């Protein structure tokens, strides 16, 4: 039987996936192996995901970003779901989670595995509810059956809501928003109906065996994450975290890679506390956080409220950030929402990597600043996180090609442009010339995600995917 990345790492083997990760991160392959062997990093890479371009999640590596996609009962079109996948990868998602609850789940999931160069995550509990009809009708056998099927289909990591226990439920009674995790509410409903312990907790060793066979990575679900600031860091949240620490060690004992999910809604002054506590309780297993949202007052702008918390969490040691779109709490995100959410989170991740002084991370910033001062508009656009949007905003007021050579933009105009005034003064000898030390991104030690352009996962083996106009094209991440 093929080994998991964790088992191979423990035996001293540097796998091809580790070699690829080392290349993308500009790190020594042996360091990658050591981090995986110690459980401090994970490489989600199901043996059956043939089109995968491996990546790594861990606090010692560049901060990663996940995008959630998926259908619902009212949106169940395969082509639409594949377009969501393409949009997510195009705008820089390092992993994608399919949270679909609508129709044709198997067909969509298999298509995602076939078309995705990034790791694919799922929540098998959702399919269990759909098959059973009601949460209370779920059985342990059904859970294991669905988990095994999804593993065989090639899913790289799964959220397993095994940490919420019967004894935790009374701890939620004083909350403002109760249990806001979809998986958590399902498991709570099941336990209330049956008077038994969480079935996912009961069969956790069996799940480990399935995961070890296919090298599926655990993403231990935070079923009791806070859904508002008032509920952050309460007894319920931290009691479940203690259980997640226990399950982390059980997964490792089975040779399975583990990362741990985190909140949620957390005020700014408690964000670092959440990360530090998780790292201690879970022995350094990678922390994968949703946001966190640092205020509850901005529906429609929660990609911003959450990106603030996400940057703080990443600086404190969170390894992967789950994006939030402007539609959070309001509706199912569409393509533009995915774009805005990923932009906010790529900014948060990169800002945190600059803040933690990842090797070469700031080189991207320096290169763009140099292009800006030189009024090299085309280079500015090329270096931008979202080149199309940067170019579009500039061209709304100065669309002509001649303005690509102009020493001003429409904000200040030629007369009041500070950089033009500064340059002219230096040219006239009134001030010394600036240092001429142009940044070379080609030789930068930065990880791939901290260099432009975003969305550059290797995708040469992927099947064609229909473009917006229905014409087939290669599914190359990062194309237009």
The overall pLDDT, averaged over residues, is 93
Q: Roughly what fraction of the amino acids lie in strands? A: 5-15%
How are the strands of the largest sheet arranged? 3-4-5-6-7-8-9-10
CATH fold-level name of the largest domain: TIM Barrel
Uncertain spans: 465-480
Helix percent reads 40-55%
Rg to the nearest angstrom?
A: 23 Å
DSSP, total strands: 12
Q: Describe the global form.
A: globular
Distance between the termini: 41 Å
**Structural class category:** alpha/beta
Number of helices: 18
Query: What is the total domain count?
Result: 2
Quaternary structure of the protein: single chain
Properties at a glance:
480 residues, disordered C terminus, two-stranded antiparallel sheet, 18 helices, 42% helix, alpha/beta, eight-stranded parallel barrel
Give a description of the structure.
This protein is an alpha/beta fold and 480 residues long. The protein has 2 domains: 352 residues, Radical SAM ThiC family, central domain (TIM Barrel), CATH 3.20.20.540; 84 residues, no CATH class. It has 18 helices and 12 strands. An 8-stranded parallel beta barrel has the order 3-4-5-6-7-8-9-10, surrounded by 6 helices. Helix 2 crosses helix 3.
């Amino acid at each position: 039987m093929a080994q998991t990345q964790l088992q191979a790492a423990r035996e001293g083997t540097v796998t091809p996936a580790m070699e690829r990760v080392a290349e993308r991160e500009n790190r020594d392959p042996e360091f990658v192996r050591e981090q995986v062997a110690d459980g401090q990093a994970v490489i989600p890479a199901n043996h059956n995901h043939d089109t995968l371009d491996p990546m790594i999640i861990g606090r010692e590596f560049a901060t990663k970003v996940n995008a959630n996609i998926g259908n619902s009962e009212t949106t169940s079109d395969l082509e639409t779901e594949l377009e969501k996948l393409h949009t997510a990868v195009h705008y820089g998602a390092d992993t994608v989670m399919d949270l679909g609850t609508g129709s044709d789940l198997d067909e969509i999931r298999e298509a995602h595995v076939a078309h995705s160069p990034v790791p694919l995550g799922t929540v098998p509990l959702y399919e269990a509810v759909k098959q059973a009809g009601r949460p209370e009708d779920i059985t342990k056998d059904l859970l294991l059956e669905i988990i095994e099927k999804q593993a065989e289909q090639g899913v790289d990591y799964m959220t397993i809501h095994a940490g919420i226990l019967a004894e935790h439920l009374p701890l939620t009674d004083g909350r403002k928003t109760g249990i806001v995790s979809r998986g958590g509410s399902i498991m709570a409903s099941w336990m209330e109906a049956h008077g038994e312990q969480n079935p996912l907790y009961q069969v956790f060793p069996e799940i480990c065996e399935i995961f070890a066979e296919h090298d599926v990575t655990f993403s231990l679900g935070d079923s009791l994450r806070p859904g508002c600031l008032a509920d952050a860091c309460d007894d319920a949240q931290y009691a479940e975290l203690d259980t997640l620490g226990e399950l982390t060690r059980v997964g490792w004992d089975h040779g399975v890679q583990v990362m741990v999910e985190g909140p949620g809604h957390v005020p700014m002054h408690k964000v670092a506390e959440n990360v530090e506590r998780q790292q201690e309780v879970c022995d350094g297993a990678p922390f994968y956080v949703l946001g966190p949202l640092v205020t509850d007052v901005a529906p429609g702008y929660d990609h911003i409220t959450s990106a603030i918390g996400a940057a703080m969490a990443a600086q404190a040691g969170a390894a992967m950030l789950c994006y939030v779109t402007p539609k959070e709490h309001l509706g199912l995100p569409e393509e533009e929402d995915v774009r805005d959410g990923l932009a906010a989170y790529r900014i948060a991740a990169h800002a945190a990597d600059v803040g933690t002084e990842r090797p070469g991370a700031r080189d991207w910033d320096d290169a763009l600043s140099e292009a800006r001062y030189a009024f090299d508009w085309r280079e500015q656009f090329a270096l931008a996180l979202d080149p199309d949007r940067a170019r579009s905003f500039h061209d709304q007021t100065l669309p002509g090609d001649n303005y690509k050579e102009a020493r001003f933009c429409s904000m200040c105009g030629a007369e009041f442009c500070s950089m033009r005034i500064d340059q002219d003064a230096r040219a006239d000898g009134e001030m010394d010339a600036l240092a001429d030390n142009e940044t070379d991104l080609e030789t930068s030690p930065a990880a791939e995600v901290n260099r432009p352009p975003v969305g550059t996962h290797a995708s040469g083996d992927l099947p064609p995917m229909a473009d917006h106009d229905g014409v087939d094209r290669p599914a190359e991440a990062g194309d237009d």
